[in-house]
Amino acid sequence: MAWDWEFTGRIIPDLLSGLVVTVQATVLGYALALVLGLAVALVRRVPVVGPLLHAVMEFIRCTPLLVQLVFVFTLAPGGISAFTIGFLVLGVHYAAYTAEVYRSGIEGVPPGQWEASRALSLPAHRTWGAVVLPQAVRRVIPALGNYLIAMFKDTPLLFAITVGELMYQASRIGGVYFRYLEAMTLVGLFFLLVSVPSAVLIRRLERRYAAV
Amino acid sequence: MPQSDLLPGGAPGAGGPLIRFDGVVKRFGANTVLDELDFTVDAGERVTLIGPSGSGKTTILRLLMTLEKVTGGVIWVNGEPLSHMRGKGGLVRAGEKHQREVRKRIGMVFQQFNLFPNMTVRQNVTEGPIHSLGVSRDEANQRAEELLDLVGLGEKIDAHPTRLSGGQQQRVAIARALAMRPEILLLDEVTSALDPELVSGVLDVLRGIAESTDITMLCVTHEMHFARDVSHRVLMFDQGKIVEEGPPEQIFGDPREERTRTFLHAVLDHG
């Protein structure tokens, strides 16, 4: 099968609209994973509720994202769009990982920081908000960034629940024209075009925050 | 250093001692660190705790700062139980709120400084007064400037601690502790983590504070000259008990106990 440049030009607009959906799902899912993961990491320290939540997160980590997507999509009540289900499931799935990242960051804050906070009689919200979390988050920025890229690369799974993202568009084009080469090649290329600059950016953040 | 207004003073004693350890026991697992310890410290008194590693000196400071819980006995600060509170039918274990109130009177300087690296020097010194004591930002800032001048670091007020030498960091930590206007200042081996040439700067600052105020100090140190210069009383610890106590001239000049003599020989030979 020879490469057809004219065909390539024609399918690019559709693929770009798919890329927009992919990026949207990633951004929303990642924002959810960042916030929810932090909440989980904090609640995990609470007796009784913490271990329960840990078990739930362990379950989420130990089952495939694809299965979770299809499962929720199938059981979700009508009226919720596939896109919404898609980014929610992505966000919750990745929250199970970011929670562990935050946890390691919090545990990495030296005991002396807690003791100094206590010696100054700081209220809990300042100890957490002004002392512990700023230091904890700073040291896990690279790890969190890696999950952003991992999540971005997992978005083609949304294809399975009919979200019109990049992979979905490529597959649709392939099905209509019986040509997959150009569409799938472009999918790979688009992913590279977003992933590589993101990775460079994350390395930069990593260097910047490694100073403290 | 005539800063008598700037620095906190000792509490007007309510008749009794400012600090009282009453049969205090501290165990870590099977290891008894403090064994039925009784001692008192008067308001304005400067007491140095000496003794070999593991003799329980640092634990005493950490118990006072409520960084550790007592296993048995009661610690009193200014007539108030620190580790306990008055409840129905006697003393009960203190809750977090009670402990926060009592320990606002106590400041601590740590061996490893423990400055907040994500904050500037100014924020380090004002964080406690603003958020724990409810002092206004302006007042906290002004006091931070005065205290940083006092420790010779006025020009570093907007620097981050990581840019400072160990000695400078420790002087910031002293300013941070004093900003809380504590009645009691706990000094936990404050020069042990410093390069030798930085030790004297920190000790000079502490000498100045000792001379110009009547703040109560409890000091754990291996700097015997400093202990001799600033303390009213020296307690020699071994295995969780006070082996000997007395004024520094007597402890360093004419120790009565063999254990004190061998300890001082070992320390002074190295110093």
Automatic annotation (TrEMBL), chain A:
<keyword id="KW-0812">Transmembrane</keyword>
<feature type="transmembrane region" description="Helical">
    <location>
        <begin position="65"/>
        <end position="90"/>
    </location>
</feature>
<keyword id="KW-0472">Membrane</keyword>
<keyword id="KW-0029">Amino-acid transport</keyword>
<feature type="transmembrane region" description="Helical">
    <location>
        <begin position="177"/>
        <end position="202"/>
    </location>
</feature>
<dbReference type="InterPro" id="IPR014341">
    <property type="entry name" value="Ectoine_EhuD"/>
</dbReference>
<dbReference type="InterPro" id="IPR043429">
    <property type="entry name" value="ArtM/GltK/GlnP/TcyL/YhdX-like"/>
</dbReference>
<dbReference type="GO" id="GO:0022857">
    <property type="term" value="F:transmembrane transporter activity"/>
</dbReference>
<feature type="domain" description="ABC transmembrane type-1">
    <location>
        <begin position="15"/>
        <end position="202"/>
    </location>
</feature>
<dbReference type="Pfam" id="PF00528">
    <property type="entry name" value="BPD_transp_1"/>
</dbReference>
<feature type="transmembrane region" description="Helical">
    <location>
        <begin position="20"/>
        <end position="44"/>
    </location>
</feature>
<dbReference type="GO" id="GO:0043190">
    <property type="term" value="C:ATP-binding cassette (ABC) transporter complex"/>
</dbReference>
<keyword id="KW-0813">Transport</keyword>
<dbReference type="InterPro" id="IPR035906">
    <property type="entry name" value="MetI-like_sf"/>
</dbReference>
<keyword id="KW-1003">Cell membrane</keyword>
<dbReference type="InterPro" id="IPR000515">
    <property type="entry name" value="MetI-like"/>
</dbReference>
<dbReference type="GO" id="GO:0006865">
    <property type="term" value="P:amino acid transport"/>
</dbReference>
<keyword id="KW-1133">Transmembrane helix</keyword>
<dbReference type="InterPro" id="IPR010065">
    <property type="entry name" value="AA_ABC_transptr_permease_3TM"/>
</dbReference>
<protein>
    <submittedName>
        <fullName>Amino acid ABC transporter membrane protein 2 (PAAT family)</fullName>
    </submittedName>
</protein>
<comment type="similarity">
    <text>Belongs to the binding-protein-dependent transport system permease family.</text>
</comment>
From TrEMBL, chain B:
<dbReference type="InterPro" id="IPR003593">
    <property type="entry name" value="AAA+_ATPase"/>
</dbReference>
<keyword id="KW-0029">Amino-acid transport</keyword>
<dbReference type="Pfam" id="PF00005">
    <property type="entry name" value="ABC_tran"/>
</dbReference>
<dbReference type="InterPro" id="IPR030679">
    <property type="entry name" value="ABC_ATPase_HisP-typ"/>
</dbReference>
<keyword id="KW-0813">Transport</keyword>
<comment type="similarity">
    <text>Belongs to the ABC transporter superfamily.</text>
</comment>
<dbReference type="InterPro" id="IPR027417">
    <property type="entry name" value="P-loop_NTPase"/>
</dbReference>
<dbReference type="InterPro" id="IPR003439">
    <property type="entry name" value="ABC_transporter-like_ATP-bd"/>
</dbReference>
<keyword id="KW-0472">Membrane</keyword>
<protein>
    <submittedName>
        <fullName>Amino acid ABC transporter ATP-binding protein (PAAT family)</fullName>
    </submittedName>
</protein>
<keyword id="KW-0547">Nucleotide-binding</keyword>
<keyword id="KW-0067">ATP-binding</keyword>
<dbReference type="GO" id="GO:0005524">
    <property type="term" value="F:ATP binding"/>
</dbReference>
<dbReference type="InterPro" id="IPR014343">
    <property type="entry name" value="Ectoine_EhuA"/>
</dbReference>
<dbReference type="InterPro" id="IPR050086">
    <property type="entry name" value="MetN_ABC_transporter-like"/>
</dbReference>
<dbReference type="GO" id="GO:0005886">
    <property type="term" value="C:plasma membrane"/>
</dbReference>
<feature type="domain" description="ABC transporter">
    <location>
        <begin position="19"/>
        <end position="264"/>
    </location>
</feature>
<keyword id="KW-1003">Cell membrane</keyword>
<dbReference type="InterPro" id="IPR017871">
    <property type="entry name" value="ABC_transporter-like_CS"/>
</dbReference>
<dbReference type="GO" id="GO:0015424">
    <property type="term" value="F:ABC-type amino acid transporter activity"/>
</dbReference>
<dbReference type="GO" id="GO:0016887">
    <property type="term" value="F:ATP hydrolysis activity"/>
</dbReference>
